[in-house]
What does this fold into?
Amino acid sequence: HLLSPSPASAMAPAAVVLSQDEQKRVAAYRAVDFVQSGMVLGLGTGSTAVHALDRIADLLRRGVLHDIVGIPTSKQTESIARALKIPLSDLDAHPIIDLSIDGADEVDPFLNLVKGRGGSLLREKMIEGASKKFIVIVDESKMVGRLGGSGLAVPVEIVPFGWSYTLSKLKALFELERGFNAKLRTRVEEDGKEVPFVTDNGNYIIDLYFENGIERDLGLLSDSLLRIVGVAEHGMFLGMATSVIVANKDGEITVIN
Ligand code: 5RP
It folds into this structure.
């Protein structure tokens, strides 16, 4: 069901053009309307999810919400939530999560997602997969016709051992695909040295690029990726989102279920 856009009222007067970050905030605040006292919450990672953390912390401080337990999807989120005094626990203590709220890099018309630009895809997928409800919060730039279609990477988390062997296996999977590329994600240290990006789980990330987006069956592609020994997880979140909340530059919010 597509609920027609509704104004974000006081937060976003119609005449104002919202920046991308303001759109993220509007979507995040709307998602937090679904949080109830006593819930176990999956806490997402990234610049959109941070707005949800701020809002949850504010409502806790004001006593509007109470008895919330947050399960962070990354070390970064853990430290932000800790600073905001959101009570935290983990997936082992809470294997069933009431609601997760997180951003995404891409959302297709069927609510399939690409996540993991921030590198937290494995923990995100575990926690969001354990959630009764998973609300995705995005600005309108994240909506795509086809996953991989925005020119951004589809990340794959791999174990560091034999990473170039795993990279070659991934490349072989797409050898007939025009405009395909795969690269080890790196970061530049203070001294200018380029080193592999390391995830919270001590793993590496291979970024897959598709010139025209992913044209093959996503479920089959997921199976093929996960069958490669050395692959820990990939950033396609298929059929996992319960709702997607999209905010646009006019401050309108669309909820897609
Ligand atoms: C991190 C993620 C993020 O949710 C995704 O990258 C969106 O980030 P942002 O809200 O900063 O645009 O998957 O692993």
Notes: The chain is about 25% helix and 30% strand. The chain has a mean pLDDT of 93.
